[in-house]
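Q: Got a minute? One more chain.
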Amino acid sequence: MNIRFKLFVMMALEFFIWGAWLPLIFGYLPSLGFSPGEQSWILNAFPLAAIVGMFFSNQFCDRNFAAEKFLAFSHLIGGLAMLGLAFTKIFWPFFGLMLVHCLLYVPTISIVNSIAFANMKDSQKEFGLVRMGGTIGWILAAWPFTFILVDWDKVHAANAHGAIEWLGAVLGSGLTGEKLKAATAWTFAVAGIASLALAAFSFVLPHTPPKKSGAEKLAWLEALKLLKHPFVLVLWLVTLVDSFVHNCYFNWTGSFLGTDKAAGGVGIPGNWIMPVMSVGQIAEISTMFILGATLKRLGWRATLIVGILGHAARFATYAFFPGHPGLIIAVQILHGICYAFFFATVYIFVDAYFPKDARASAQGLFNVMILGLGALLANSVCPYLGQKVFTHDGVTNFHGLFLVPMVCGLVAVAALALFFHPPKTATPTETRH
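A: Always. Here it is, folded:
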């Protein structure tokens, strides 16, 4: 097994875990009777972990522990916590288990990037292909639920004859309503098993030792110092806005797809919601193939702007064309542009512009925005906006709801266009080691 393939499998398992439980949790938590405030606490365990990880977990990997060993430990304990979530329906135990999982899982998103970059010869050329494993992992997490979230009573009642007719009955008998919400607990069990699998796989990953020769004892402080460069600060702040917009998508899309057309939604059957949302990840595969060439042709700023415009276009489609299921499904393709052209580009940018001995912490610095503050903001605001401000008499005004992230995305585009001017040299001279 060559190194690139190992890195590919690592990414696949890493994002399979997240992709298994995230898309449906936003509809699952209200079904357990949790208030909007309690929902926000649970959802914010993830971004809070990203902020904590910046100062502790990534520091350990930059200065103290081999990255692959940290990965194994994190996924062992985090996987057991995720399995516990499948059987928990009371707020405080649920929140506690989610917090344990997130505190251990979220830093590994930076860690797998660091392992990948440390074992590449040309990151701009190779990272897109390796990171594609994460995209495929997310897709693989979605499609099995087409058969798990099925109303088997309907299938039996159909009395299908032959394999093809039976398959059609299964695919057309997705769970809805309360049955769908109850069966969502399976997503946590699947994610937990995948986490334990990655813990075991970590022992065959290439050894990635800590870098102990940095000028700063605290690697996160060395990374934080680069915010004094205006172009780094601008990108960091724009990343906050784009992360907010990105997390609005996950907060609201599942409910939007599953809501009946009469109530302003799309009317997608329950067992097809995750596969429909995974269309974006399928498109992301082809986008990752061209990411390196796009960066060289368009440069950092234009590539990042295209990524954010993808978000704005998708939410505009949600807001103005909700009654066209085919168009709503097709526009999921933009997710490939949204993720690869912005977030993956940010990770490559960090590898190019930050010193080697602080890159795990530098990845964590931007993950504070990508997975931390941006998600924290969205998870705090979205339940309130979706369930209180834009919902009246049980009917959600999706048009007004989706205009919020659309406008935020356009503001981020303007900020990048006007204020983001990175130098032509790869790394700021005073940070080279």
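A: DSSP finds 19 helices and two strands in the chain.
Q: Perfect, thanks.
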